[in-house]
Write a structure and sequence with these properties.
Elements lengths: L7 H11 L4 H12 L6 H9 L8 H7 L4 H6 L30 H9 L6 H5 L6 H9 L4 H18 L5 H22 L5 H22 L2 H18 L2 H17 L3 H14 L5 H16 L3 H16 L22 H7 L3 H15 L5 H5 L1 H17 L3 H12 L6 H17 L4 H14 L10 H6 L2
Helix pairs in contact: 2-3, 9-11, 10-11, 11-12, 11-13, 12-13, 13-14, 13-15, 14-15, 15-16, 15-17, 17-18, 18-20, 20-21, 20-22, 21-23, 22-23
Length: 460
């Protein structure tokens, strides 16, 4: 196919449109040609936006788009973008991040722990798009175990902060580290630390799935979940597979597929052991899915199972971060389940209890998990609306939308509250005020990287 003289991002989009292909079709074709499964529509979109130059993917792109490889390689970046590092990364699907503001504090601590001179730190700031990889190279320059230890510390760091940071930014950073880890896997062979590296790679894939879910990038989330499952089985660590099942179940639930969500949750429970946080979360998710499906008996059984699972948790079970469970008098998602089976007063009581215990006092987890706090408020708003309490419902909705971290699941519930208010309280000025605030939230710059098109279109 003849290619015009355009910057590479515009050229890729032009060639794709000329071939009458969608971004998803390009991603699928790339995966088929290369035998990998980690490229999604989201990555193709990043290339066309000029955010990342797909250096290592250009040969496959030339084949998919039926054009000359030399033309793609010669195409410049956009003039308004700084030049990218075009050195081929270690893995066939590595995508370096170019938007990190500074080296993570966790890496700085790792430097100090391993005796690396502080003099190297100023130099790290010069190369913004390769900082994390350079840091890992330094930390693990002596042996693979050093890199695996540092990856583990990074995983702990992101597991604690992923719920509070902008999901798109987290996704970019995690993708850099995940690509680096996959490059190492290609070269370590059967080294003693390989199993630990496989497991670390799987946890990074799971965290990428969580970030993709929060952006509304469902295809990307599923791909990363599948990769986490593969790494989990390779490392013989079923708990990771359970977390991947939970993420897939949550995506299905927020997409309005409760029966599929319940099936995924039940399957996940068969993989992991009781007494683990993920088992309890899967049981709670099955309860919520059964409630949405109108299966009261199934909800009751799952609620009882979740209660037993929580009682079996060790005293030091984590209660903050992406791999944690929020402990209250009820299993997680109880209030949401009660809402879906029309037990509205109980839902209000349960939600208020969660807000008081989990997110107060001193707004402890409001900052640690702002979107979780916002979703609790929106459930409260929906329950209050069902009881006819307009002012209380709208107040909860406004408080939810004042949060600092918009996420796709949050906006799904915010849209649902907007529709319920419009249906039950049409013409009320409170309804109009909430609708205006909702539109402001989905059009805010912080929400631009979320996949909210379906939500906006449903507004009519």
């Amino acid at each position: 196919m003849e290619a015009p003289h355009l910057p590479l991002p515009d050229l890729l989009k032009h060639l794709r449109n000329s071939a009458r292909m969608t971004q998803q079709q390009v991603a699928d074709a790339l995966c088929a040609i290369t035998g990998t499964c980690t490229i999604t529509r989201f990555e193709v979109g990043r290339w066309e936006q000029g955010r990342v130059r797909p250096t290592s993917w250009l040969p496959a792109l030339a084949e998919v788009l039926n054009t000359d490889l030399n033309v793609l390689q010669a195409a410049p970046d956009r003039p308004d973008k700084k030049a990218r590092d075009r050195k081929a990364p270690p893995a066939p699907y590595t995508v370096p991040s170019d938007e990190m503001e500074q080296v993570s504090d966790v890496l700085r601590r790792t430097f100090l722990q391993r005796g690396i001179a502080a003099a190297v730190m100023p130099n790290m700031r010069v190369h913004g798009d390769r900082r994390v990889i350079q840091a890992l190279d330094m930390v693990g320059s002596d042996h693979l175990g050093g890199v695996v230890d540092s990856l583990g510390e990074l995983i702990d760091h992101y597991a604690q902060t992923i719920c509070a940071l902008p999901p798109a930014d987290v996704y970019d950073e995690l993708l850099t580290v995940r690509s680096y880890a996959s490059g190492l896997l290609d070269h370590v062979g059967h080294a003693p630390s390989r199993k630990d590296l496989v497991l670390a790679t799987g946890w990074l894939s799971h965290l990428l799935a969580v970030a993709a879910c929060d952006m509304g990038e469902h295809a990307a989330a599923r791909v990363w979940c599948s990769d986490a499952v593969r790494q989990s089985r390779d490392a013989r660590h079923p708990e990771l597979e359970g977390w991947a099942a939970l993420t897939k179940a949550m995506v299905a639930w927020y997409q309005g597929q409760p029966r599929q969500s319940a099936i995924l949750s039940a399957r996940g429970q068969k993989v992991v052991q009781q007494g683990t946080v993920v088992y309890a979360k899967l049981a709670a998710q099955e309860m919520r899915a059964a409630a949405m499906a109108g299966d009261v008996d199934g909800m009751t059984r799952a609620r009882r199972q979740a209660g037993k699972a929580i009682a079996a948790l060790p005293p030091d079970a984590p209660t903050t971060g992406a791999l944690s469970i929020a402990l209250s008098e009820d299993p997680p998602y109880t209030a949401t389940s009660l809402l879906f089976v029309s037990r509205y007063r109980e839902a209000v009581t349960a939600t208020n209890r969660v807000i008081e215990i989990v997110y107060q006092p001193e707004a402890r987890q409001r900052g640690e998990h702002p979107s979780g706090y916002a979703r609790s408020l929106l459930i409260l708003g929906l329950a209050q609306a069902a009881l006819g309490h307009l002012d209380e419902s709208v107040a909860a909705g406004h408080a939810a939308l004042a949060g600092s971290r918009p996420a796709w699941p949050t906006m799904v519930l915010a849209d649902k509250l907007d529709k319920v208010l419009a249906q039950e309280f049409a013409g009320a000025h409170q309804t109009a005020d909430y609708h205006a605030r909702y539109l402001e939230a989905i059009n805010a710059p912080a929400a631009h990287q979320l996949q909210l098109q379906r939500t906006v279109e449903d507004r009519g």
